[in-house]
Amino acid sequence: MKVAIVGVSGAVGQEFLRVLDEQNFPIDELLLFGSERSAGKTYTFRGKEYTVRHLQHNDDFKGVDFAFVSAGAGVSREFAETITKHGAVMIDNSSAFRMDEDVPLVVPEVNGEDAFDAPRGIIANPNCTTAIMVVALKPINDISPIKRVHVATYQAASGAGAVAMQELENQYAELAEGKEPTVEKFAYQLAYNLIPHIDVFLDNDYTKEEMKMYNETKKIMHAPNLEVSATCIRVPVMRAHSEAVWVETENPVSVDDARRAFENAEGLVVIDEPAAKKYPMPLDAAGKDPVYAGRLRKDLANPNGLTFWLVGDQIKKGAALNAVQIAQYMIAHPRN
Ligand code: 2RA
Question: How remote is the CA of residue 125 from the centroid of ligand 1, in Å?
Fold first, then answer.
């Protein structure tokens, strides 16, 4: 396989290199692309050094099988044609094409088949919070269709990039030294704080992040009538997102049936022994592949309701791992 990574110097770009190696992805040739600023940098992959090329409108993508792209929506929009014109499958981590009718939005455990319906050669990777949540919605939805989802997210600094992770660390150090904390990547100090604001506010007083969960969940679950309401919060955690989820199903689903479904679900690991104080936590989930589920119980406010707690690594399942899994799904289920 000839593989390209666009945006290789970023947090997700670097994770693509790690995940492709961890997953033993079949690569005969690897091309790394970045901005003019990143061009010339070198990265090692499987013991070999690769130099970052400046991403330009040329024929560099000729012969590429999969291009993993995470360089922002603007770059994805500008270079989609250049990347796909020779037949490369562009798996795009940005929000650029997620809601386009002719671009599938894919979490392999939920709707892997959709990856083959990509007339533009573009497959969109969902927002990290959506990817983490739908892995757990799927097994419950298979028992009884979910009518309504409420979710509160507790999102790590990594969602705002490597610089934001460093800013959070610096803030604790600056405060420890009695200095004013540096606040650049977030609207306010994040250390010792929570910020109920991710991305921009829209006219309906939801943020773009919250509306991503609203729109993307419906598309991935093929459930246009599914009701979703999200509140997305930035929390002082480094790289794993947590989510408190409430679902209402058409028919009541018992906790035992839901737990069995979770335990048998792809990509999900259940950590749920409250009496033993065993539940998922971001510190434990950081750097790991699965989505972790726990605190499963009946929703006391809804006879057809269940509530549970999810934790998943934002850079892995929330981005790089899901994108590589899309390519793995396509390789494992070849279409003639
Ligand atoms: C965040 N989901 O967590 C957004 C973008 N990665 O900041």
Answer: 13
Please tell me whether the overall predicted TM-score, pTM, comes out greater than 0.95 for this model. Answer: yes
The verdict on residue 162 lying in a domain is no
Reading the block at residue 93, the tokens are 């981590």
Interface ipTM above 0.90:
yes
Total structural domains in the chain?
Answer: 2
Which residues contribute to the annotated binding site for substrate? 155, 234
CB 100 within 8 A of CB 119: no
Strand partners, 294: 309
What is the per-residue pLDDT across 282-334, written as a single tens digit (0 to 9) for each? Answer: 999 999 999 999 999 999 999 999 999 999 999 999 999 999 999 999 999 98
- The number of CA neighbours under 13 Å toward the Cβ of 178 is 0
Q: Is 285 exposed, middle or buried (0-12, 13-18, 19+ CB in 10 A)?
A: buried
Cβ atoms 318, 128 nearer than 8 A: yes
Take atom 7 of ligand 1 and give the residue whose Cα is closest: 159
> Looking at residue 163, what is its pLDDT?
93
Q: Are residues 151 and 240 both part of a single domain?
A: yes
